[in-house]
């Protein structure tokens, strides 16, 4: 369908119901228009598929497959409202009437700037669930790419957008009417699975691979297999997509599994959804606090608000930024300097080790003595409450072995 014909269709009534208002986009296999449903008064996306065959049986098969696509239902799928065949310029052509998503594509959003990993996680859950629904119906998308992920502005304050997977069934329909010989390719070179690149019949695992590349690009803003057609296709046949450590271990593990070159070892779409949901949950939920030695407390009686902290020793070790693996190329001079500095630090640590251990032992002994004193005071308080008439306090006797041990312990930590 040429540009002149595309423009000429503006104002045309398709299927006696859909009035074409403007051309939205055009590809080699279909043209998409903004149209108005004159029955319901709503704006829709109208996709007219270029004629594939004059064979009546091919048209009937195409219609059956459209009905299958109409049965798919998920919030992350662009809803198919209607479909049919109409005579356009004297040629019978199939058209699809779909929900119009008034927002950018994921590709446009990636170009704009970084995307919050939480939003990527939520998008991954939605798209993987949508793929599971479609795969369960025996449909394979075959052309998952950022340009086929449409974004709607979210109405919720905690997320930027909601995602919808578009063009479901277009490659499926074209495959059944056009790709009758082995070795045909349907899809976009940058996101094809290795088996698609070899010309094999794509299966659900192919969609999982392509989705993995899309999510990787959303996180890194870098296409895994750039370059000309043959270079891009060949690259995935001999190597895996580079997955940087900066995206975190969980994302790295999931994307590595999704983009495995062997289809049989890739997770299913439903497994991807479950893994992405766990990642998103970890990103939005603070990690539980793990008590350390500095949290050790002794509560006396009912006065829990006045806990007595036992002498605990903690050492803080600075951590590198999460997931960052910096690489540096050092000259021989720099290596020698680092070697000397490392030796100096080791010597300094050996000189301070004894002093640190001595201070630690004194704190421990102080804590033990403090606990004995507190225990004695608590015992006195309990006896004072339970005895009706005052009596001379009886202090707990420190038996000779314990006294001797405490004296020996104090001498051992004396400077």
CATH homologous superfamily assignment of the domain at 102-176 and 186-286: Transferase(Phosphotransferase) domain 1
Proportion of residues in β-strands: 15-25%
Order of helices and strands: HEEEEHEEHHEEHHHHHHEEHH
How many beta-strand runs? 10
Nearest-integer average pLDDT: 74
Query: Largest sheet, order of strands side by side?
Result: 1-2-3-4-6-5
CATH class descriptor of the domain at 102-176 and 186-286? Mainly Alpha
Sheet with most strands: 6 strands, antiparallel
- Cα Rg: 35 Å
**Roughly what percent helix?**
40-55%
What is the count of helical runs? Answer: 12
Q: Which structural class best describes the helix and strand composition?
A: alpha+beta
| Unreliable residue stretches | 178-182, 293-387
Transmembrane segments: 364-385
Region (Disordered): 339-359
Protein name: Serine/threonine-protein kinase PknA
Keywords: ATP-binding, Kinase, Membrane, Nucleotide-binding, Transferase, Transmembrane, Transmembrane helix
